[in-house]
């Protein structure tokens, strides 16, 4: 049994004058693909930023790969892809990745592997500002894969991608997990839920559910994840 890659307890985050995470707690098992789902503004990015150690005004405990979130020793062990492309427009895909490999101290031989993994080999020599939005986000993903980090945290990596590419990326996520990486993938597209080993369902700064997709559907008595989400909201409102 693999250990937990991430453990959060009593997590509270204040942004502006609002508590945008309100007492969140969960564990993410190593070597799994966990989906972080919930409507726009519910706190997914804030939670991700807290896990990777970039969020201010965090209280509670977050342990990441056995260390406190944000510990300097975690650098290089976590790959993080934001919603904004993190690659330079005036460099080619390969030039970008060689640059990031050098910064990370990863051998440049790794560049070819990650370009292939995100299916950008045919555009390896194209300037990033001449790529489509989806290709650009895959270039950012390739950068995060350099050095095979133990934890990959991906904020909405499939936005704007066509169904074939989305399926291929989800397959890649599972291959990476099978090889031992842990992935936390946020999405507000509920139909991506079935592709995850486990789901964290958020709403309004709180965790509504932490379960497998199958058990979530079973307990909500539906085969539609969106409906399950609504049922959970109604049950929670009824319990108040
Ligand atoms: N810089 C900020 N200052 C104050 N409040 C913020 C800031 N950034 C985000 N928020 C608020 O924090 C809450 C959570 O935002 P967050 O970006 O974590 O949501 P999200 O679930 O990732 O949304 P989306 O799916 O739209 O990206 C929102 O209500 C948002 O308005």
From TrEMBL:
Gene Ontology molecular function: ATP binding
Which residue range or ranges hold the ABC transporter domain?
A: 6-229
Q: Which domain of life is it from?
A: Bacteria
- Asked if ATP-binding is a keyword of the record, the answer is yes
- Identify the keywords attached in UniProt to this record, alphabetized: ATP-binding, Nucleotide-binding
Instruction: Reply yes or no: does the keyword Nucleotide-binding apply.
Output: yes
What the entry lists under InterPro entries is as follows: AAA+_ATPase, ABC_transporter-like_ATP-bd, ABC_transporter-like_CS, P-loop_NTPase
List the SUPFAM superfamilies hit by this protein, alphabetically.
P-loop containing nucleoside triphosphate hydrolases
Q: Which Pfam families match?
A: ABC_tran
Q: Which Gene3D superfamilies match?
A: P-loop containing nucleotide triphosphate hydrolases (3.40.50.300)
Q: What is this protein called?
A: ABC-2 type transport system ATP-binding protein
**What organism does this protein naturally occur in?**
Kribbella pratensis
């Amino acid at each position: 049994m693999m250990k937990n890659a991430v453990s959060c307890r009593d997590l509270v985050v204040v942004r502006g004058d609002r508590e945008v995470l309100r007492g969140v707690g969960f564990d993410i098992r190593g070597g799994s693909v966990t989906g972080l789902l919930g409507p726009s503004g519910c706190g997914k990015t804030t939670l991700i930023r807290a896990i990777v150690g970039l969020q201010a005004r965090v209280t509670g405990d977050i342990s990441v790969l056995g260390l406190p979130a944000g510990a300097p020793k975690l650098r290089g062990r976590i790959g993080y892809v934001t919603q904004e492309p993190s690659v330079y427009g005036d460099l080619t895909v390969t030039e970008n990745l060689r640059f990031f490999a050098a910064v990370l101290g990863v051998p440049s031989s790794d560049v070819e592997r990650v370009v292939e993994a995100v299916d950008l080999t045919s555009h390896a020599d194209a300037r990033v500002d001449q790529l489509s939005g989806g290709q650009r986000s895959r270039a950012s993903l390739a950068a995060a894969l350099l050095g095979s980090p133990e934890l990959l945290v991906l904020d909405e990596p499939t936005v704007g991608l066509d169904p074939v590419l989305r399926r291929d990326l989800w397959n890649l996520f599972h291959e990476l997990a099978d090889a031992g990486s842990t992935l936390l993938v946020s999405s507000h597209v509920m139909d991506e839920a079935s592709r995850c080993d486990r789901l964290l369902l958020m709403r309004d700064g709180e965790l509504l559910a932490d379960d497998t997709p199958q058990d979530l559907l079973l307990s909500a008595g539906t085969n539609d994840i969106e409906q399950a989400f609504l049922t959970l909201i109604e049950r929670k409102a009824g319990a108040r």
